[in-house]
Amino acid sequence: MKIGVYPGSFDPITLGHLDIIERSLKIVDKLVVGVLENSSKTPMFTLEQRTALIRKACEDLGDRVEVVPFSGLLVNFLKEQKACVNIRGLRAVTDFEYELQMAQANRSLYPPMETIFLTTRAEYAYISSTVAKDVLRFGGDVSHFIPNNTIEMIYSFRRQ
Predict the structure, then answer these.
(1) Selected catalytic residue, list 41, 82, 121, 137
(2) Which of 17, 50, 56, 88 is catalytic?
(3) Active site (annotated) includes residue 108
(4) Where are the alpha helices (DSSP H) in 27-148?
(5) Is 17 a catalytic residue?
(6) Alpha helix (H) residue ranges in the chain
(7) How high does pLDDT run on average in the chain?
(8) Rounded-to-integer distance, Cα 10 and Cα 26, Å
(9) How do 114-119 and 85-90 pair as beta strands?
(10) pLDDT per position as a tens digit, 83-132
(11) Is residue 129 annotated as a catalytic residue, yes or no?
């Protein structure tokens, strides 16, 4: 079984993230969405909330998608998950330089790992978690940015 990991902070999950998740299932037998707990960032949503949002967004994708929180080195997480494929989404050429550098560093730490870059669909290229959070902060409509089945959860988390 070919297992892939799609890591990120997903604060919150966007339509672009969901697109990468769906397309990754054409490449791997099982996809683990790794929800990063990054101590250097202050997320809008807790790790538990982000994990719940991703599970809700992926509920129609079946048991080939698993959502697992993690912290620490990505390569250690891949080893724990028995994964050999790291999936990364690219929105623009500006993402590539950083992602390439990270892929090379990770490969040096875990040679069996392959990184696959998937470019976002054009209709999602402008969407980022940062944009979604800014719209949320100012009371805007995020339905153009996040999966429809997570909108109610997002607003309930924001009211808490």
Answers:
(1) 41
(2) 17
(3) no
(4) 47-57, 74-81, 93-109, 129-137
(5) yes
(6) 15-24, 47-57, 74-81, 93-109, 129-137, 151-159
(7) 95
(8) 21
(9) parallel
(10) 999 999 998 888 899 999 999 999 999 999 999 999 999 999 999 999 99
(11) yes
